[in-house]
Design a protein that fits this description.
Blueprint: H1 15-28, H2 41-48, H3 52-64, E1 68-71, E2 75-78, E3 85-88, H4 95-99, E4 106-117, H5 120-125, E5 132-142, E6 145-155, H6 172-180, E7 184-195, H7 198-204, E8 211-221, E9 226-234, E10 239-242
Parallel strand pairs: 3-10
Antiparallel strand pairs: 1-2, 4-5, 5-6, 6-9, 7-8, 8-9
Length: 250
């Protein structure tokens, strides 16, 4: 019997995206448990009443997002979610520090670094006396998968000639601490969901318009100066975020 699961063909949302979300819900609620095979392409076309092309696009997206994997000659299986990283928001860590105890292979690719004049948006973030910042663009890889696309701005007055460092091989936070004697103190983070632009989709190997998790971070030193403003985008399945909150009674 076709179409026993809900796909709204009158919806403005693409059919593959609806199917992708339906499968993802079943993965998350345990209908399709970890290390178990998903229904075949044919079974999904019958179940949802959609074409094989639609099924393949939904499956391919879930593979790219790390929820499932294709095993040649066997089928498509749900991936162990424990393989993905969980960021503790109760502490401020660099990418390398967050992953040092994991079994993942990680690396960073520096796209560019250059000194630029502050536009109005950056002027509102940094001290009004700042005239220039270094703009650093990087892609983080986890197990050779592009995981995060990050654009970072640091004040040129605090970090002169920081463009001489290769941030493919050295940590920005460690460079700040060791080379510029900066004591990193705390950070403020802002989260929201956005749609991938052409640039972001190319860097993260996703389709244009794919949902991304955007995290904006403003980092301060022990003198309460803003030493970093960064914008990180990932596909949302790469990282989960957790924080411990303490209840305070009146």
């Amino acid at each position: 019997m076709k179409g026993i699961d809900m796909i709204d063909k009158n919806s403005p949302l693409p059919l593959y995206f609806q199917l992708q979300n339906s499968l993802l819900e079943k993965i998350k609620d345990g209908t399709y448990p970890k290390n178990k095979a998903l229904p075949t392409e044919y079974e999904l076309t019958e179940q949802y009443g959609v074409s094989r092309i639609t099924v393949r696009q939904a499956i391919d997206n879930l593979v790219k997002e790390g929820y499932i994997e294709k095993r040649r000659g066997v089928g498509t299986f749900v991936v162990e979610r424990e393989k993905l990283n969980s960021w503790d928001l109760g502490s401020l860590k660099s990418f390398e520090e967050a992953f040092k105890e994991s079994n993942h292979e990680i690396r960073t690719e520096m796209i560019s670094i250059k000194c630029i004049k502050l536009n109005n948006k950056l002027q509102n973030i940094f001290d009004s006396k700042e005239k220039e910042v270094y703009q650093l663009k990087r892609v983080r890889f986890i197990d050779e998968r592009p995981a995060m696309y990050i654009t970072t701005y640091v004040p040129a007055s605090i970090f002169p000639q920081i463009d001489k460092y290769d941030f493919s091989s050295v940590s920005l936070y460690k460079t700040m601490s060791d080379e510029y004697k900066i004591n990193i103190s705390y950070a403020e983070k802002e989260f929201r969901v956005i749609a991938a632009t052409k640039d972001e989709s190319e860097k993260l190997k996703l389709k244009i318009g794919s949902p991304l998790q955007e995290v904006k971070t403003i980092t301060y030193d022990d003198k309460n100066r803003i030493i970093e403003y960064s914008i990180s985008r990932d596909s949302g399945d790469i990282s989960t975020y957790k924080i411990k909150l303490k209840y305070r009674s009146k």
